Amino acid sequence: MGSLAPLLPGTVALVGGGPGDAGLMTVAGRSAVEQADVLLVDHLAPEEALAWARPDALVVDVAKLPRGAFTPQERINDLLVEHARRGRRVVRLKGGDGFVFGRGMEEVLACTEADVPVRVIPGVTSSVAVPALGGIPVTHRGVVQGFSVISGHVPPGHPASTLDYGALARSGTTLIVLMGVATLPAITEALMENGLDPATPAAVIARGGHPDQQVVSGSVADIAVRAAHVEPPAITVIGEVASFAAATDTHVLEEVI
User: Fold this and answer.
1) CATH number for the domain that contains residue 189
2) Domain for residue 6, yes or no?
3) Which of 21, 37, 42, 97 is catalytic?
4) Which of 64, 78, 97, 249 is catalytic?
5) Does residue 64 carry a catalytic annotation?
6) Looking at the whole model, is its pTM more than 0.85?
């Protein structure tokens, strides 16, 4: 089945909405939204994309806000299956790409285990797109040859953390931290304790892809303090490429302490 093939009744499409601006969604993603009978929508999905939905489409808010409204993943899985079994064309719309810290595979498995046809329409991942929108390349010839994307959902040393911060500090790659606003002080401290130069450039991009986007620049030693006022969603970039931010984008807001 091609990516622009019609959505069939009784099926689910998992659509990545990209990094914020609805104009950055894929053509296939827009097509799916336009055909949907039911849309299950995350809070980071581009709100403007809902204007493409049919007037009679059912839009269900399944937000999982930090320290706010929360729809359990199990309930979302149940809704996908329930609506599809009623013969509806169901779209699960979320921000970024659903397979990058987006629980997309959990939803695929829930559908396949229930014998509900499901397909994936990838989105532009915020882990790469948001730094680019802030004037930061995650790689750059002669500077860095790779990048590592990590979740900051739990801090270093937490029983649920599987990350080796010593290996990350020595990796020589750009570090991209998602979901790390609250844990940024602990993350930067762990990196420095494991040998990362405190002078390493760093930047936090808040509300990437939105008109009120901000970029806060600093070093790994002070970025947590400089960006202490930032609210989610935000992405942190740590590495030499972060120094490009202040020189390339008029949206950059240089914070002075």
Assistant:
1) 3.30.950.10
2) no
3) 42
4) 64
5) yes
6) yes
